[in-house]
Amino acid sequence: MRQAQIRAYLPESPHGLPARLAYPATVPAARRARFLEELKLLGVEAFVEEDDAGVRDRVKNLIAGKAILSWDPDQLPYGAGEALQGEAVSFGRDPREQQAQADIGLTGCEAALAETGSLAMVSGPGRPRTASLLPLTHIALIRQADLMQGMGEFFERYRQSAVLPYLVFITGPSRTADIELSLTLGVHGPGKLILILGP
Amino acid sequence: MSHFLDRVETALRDPDLKTALGRATERLGSRRSVSLDSLPDSDAVRDMARRAKLGLLRDLAGNLETFEKNLIKNGVQVHWAEDGAAANRIMVDIAKSRGCKRAVKSKSMATEETHLNHDLLEAGLEVLETDLGEYIVQLAETTPSHIILPIIHMTKESIGKVMHEKIKVPYTSDPEKLAKIARAKLREAFLSADLGITGANFGVVDSGALVLVSNEGNARLVTTLPRVHVAVMGIEKLVPSLSDLDLMIKILARSATGQKITTYTSLVTGPRREGEADGCQEMHVILLDNGRSRILGGPLAEILGCIRCGACLNACPVYKNVGGHAYGDTYPGPIGSIVTPGLRGIKAWKELPDASSLCGACRDVCPVRLDIPRMLLELRKQAVDEASIPWALRIGLWGFGVAASRPWLYRAGAGLFRWASGLMAKSGWIRKLPGLAAGWTRSRDLKAPAPKSFQELWRQRPVRPAPAGKEAAPVR
Ligand code: SF4
User: Fold this and answer.
1) What is the ipTM of this complex?
2) Does the pTM exceed 0.80?
3) Cβ of B243 under 8 Å from any chain A Cβ?
4) In sequence order, what E strands does B111-257 have?
């Protein structure tokens, strides 16, 4: 009785809708072009590198002389951990106060989404969340093979899995428009986001 | 509590409010329409999102049980709260038994609804709001006036003044500097807090995940740094699966701020796992009813499908003029006019459903296509059934009935009114009506009637000469 009443108050939607959205198959080149376009709109600095050595050099250049909070070296793609040598680096296991002093956070990512210019970050051992959160600048490395079309496609990956990890989609620098709608960057998270797209 | 009309009157007398609101709602409204258009198949996505939400509500009890099971599987402790007082009590108990002293909060309408901060302070805890807007609301000791932009009613000058007075920083009205000051202040708090409090934008039934969206990143800090995380979530906030969540994320930010997606979309799935260096060590979810199950069994059930995007506020001609505080409770604008009487009972909130012109702008912008005007009409009917009609109104309506069914009497009455109001009008407007009619001009002016009535003009209309073979026809 009560169930029937609830149904009456929540009318059925029109018929003929697909059960789920179809995710269009896209080619890597198109995905990459769209991704870079979205990054431009978001004010994200992007570098495209041809090979592993190019990525390592780029990282070295960007972090030289700064205090860094990084994922564990063996978690970074392209052997980019090498670039950390000789720099002031802290990791997830270090005291929080020390991590909070870092100027730059260095991370990889699980996937990147072309449609919105987002990074998908998954928590795990050696991959502290603080690295993409506490410093004012966040540098993330993306492998060409991890570039997907959108969030739906990314979720497909977890449709069958028993547990979902803690995950966050990051789209552009931290921002607020609370004061008279005027845009301010870096209010709690990083105000600057730099992405390096490798091979 | 003050009366609705008094709150409206205060709002209309505030020139700052009018400027701030006008600017903001205009810009948000136009951004939203551009952004929803940027979504391919936006109509299909909206229909599917609506179906997912309403389908879930049809078996809310079953879905809640599955959700609870999956939360527990993820290592989350689940609590059920029948009302706001119960939710607050559970929160205080958790805080005390875990020895927490300092809480940081990210924006949550559910805890505004239960007045959680008050109860936490009373229990001797320190509580700090960390969303920039909510932080300023807390400093100014006021309440948010918009569900997305809490301080939409304040100018940057007034914000600068509040920060100068309350935290003793040099006065500035530069939004960027103000945000920097807040970042530094709040960073200290984040690093020393032991309790993180959030709401939830969505709960994903099939994976037991809480979804939090924020542009600033404070929700991430709140769920990552303190050792205990407690989320308060209204029981209607569920979506069935991750693919439904994808639909909601597609429409939420587009409708709220015109972004394709908010900067941070977090899926929180329990305390830190084996080998992780950060994340809370203990996580709780408080499922809050507080009147929602009562709404579910009635004609307002559809409103539980609301995803709190705020688009209907920005589109509403009444909200644009009176602002959020006039609605008197947690949820302002068209949704507030339905949710507040729904949650708290129509008796004390009879005027809210009247705060609408029924223009339908809210229904047009709503990403899940909620029929807000229908529900407002339903509530008006309930309000009339509830109320005893005052004698003056009864006599008035009876008198109108008599006059309206006798043309000579109606004409005489209308003529008399035109003559009398002509005497009162100044340059075409009447500022104040006398006696019983005074209520009409309390918060608006009345346009003076035209010198000639429609019926007079009709009788005097020129007649065109008839073409050969036809009768004379009046000019159209
Ligand atoms: S009723 Fe619709 S438009 Fe209004 S806040 Fe809810 S979802 Fe948004």
Assistant:
1) 0.93
2) yes
3) yes
4) 126-129, 195-198, 202-204, 209-214, 228-234, 238-239
